[in-house]
Design brief:
Arc Repressor Mutant, subunit A; globular; alpha+beta; three-stranded antiparallel β-sheet
């Protein structure tokens, strides 16, 4: 039998795995959910996810570097938002697969 081609290259598989590794942290998933309705500062996000500012800042940096977040600087504050609505759609899809029901 011939070798069948997958729809992703090995490099693309590695890139997607990086995103799923990042999403294995419940804090990071919570951060993404927190940003589903509006942009927020790192301090606001830290309060909402009940994490230290330093921990939240590191998680925000990682999510930003993966392309899941965008940021905007205003004075001394940095505001974060989702890079696109696809991020929440991904979370909704994974939720549906895990719980076999759409998000309420």
């Amino acid at each position: 039998m011939g070798k069948e081609k997958t729809f992703l290259t090995p490099e693309e598989c590695e890139g997607l795995a990086d995103i799923f590794k990042s999403l294995s942290s419940s804090v990071r998933v919570h951060i993404l959910c927190t940003l589903s309705d509006s942009e927020k500062s790192a301090g606001e996000i830290a309060k909402e996810v009940n994490a230290s500012f330093a921990n939240t800042s590191q998680n925000l940096k990682d999510l930003y570097n993966l392309g899941l977040l965008k940021k905007r600087r205003s004075g001394q504050h940095v505001y974060y938002s989702l890079a696109s609505d696809d991020v929440i759609e991904l979370l909704r899809l994974v939720y549906k697969i895990r719980y076999r029901t759409p998000v309420k």
